[in-house]
Amino acid sequence: MNQPVQKNTLYVGGLAEEVNESILHAAFIPFGDIKDVKTPLDLATQKHRSFGFVTFLEREDAVAAMDNMDGAELYGRVLTVNYALPERIKGGEQGWAAQPIWADADTWFERQQQEEEMQRIQA
Question: What is the DSSP string of 4-60?
Fold first, then answer.
């Protein structure tokens, strides 16, 4: 089953160790309103695993951010920015949860879509 790509959530790879969620937020806010920033932590070290996710309210802002930030430098490291896949948002590249979390990745994605639907209805 192919899941649609979240076009307003960006995967940001190549983060320097010093980069935290507020720095990531500051780096991407020039492109538009940000709904969420996540840097999944390694449970053993409690440091992020050099990648994060930035979710924009508007798809167009995510596109602009990806165009401008892919290959850009932040704290001396070159960033990789592309659309996030739902399972990468959930578990990262190697999965950072103690147990497999793929089982609820689908329900997570559905909840995200329901949330967006609710926001559209309320708007």
Answer: PPEEEEEEEE---TT--HHHHHHHHGGGS-EEEEE-PBPTTT-SB-SEEEEEESSHH
User: Whole-angstrom distance between the N-terminal and C-terminal Cα of the chain?
Assistant: 31
pLDDT in tens, 76-85: 999 999 998 7
Q: What angle do CA 92, 18, 8 make, to 5 degrees?
A: 45
Distance CA 29, CA 84 (A): 18
Q: Which CATH number fits domain 6-122: 3.40.50.2300, 3.30.70.330, 3.90.76.10, 3.30.420.10?
A: 3.30.70.330
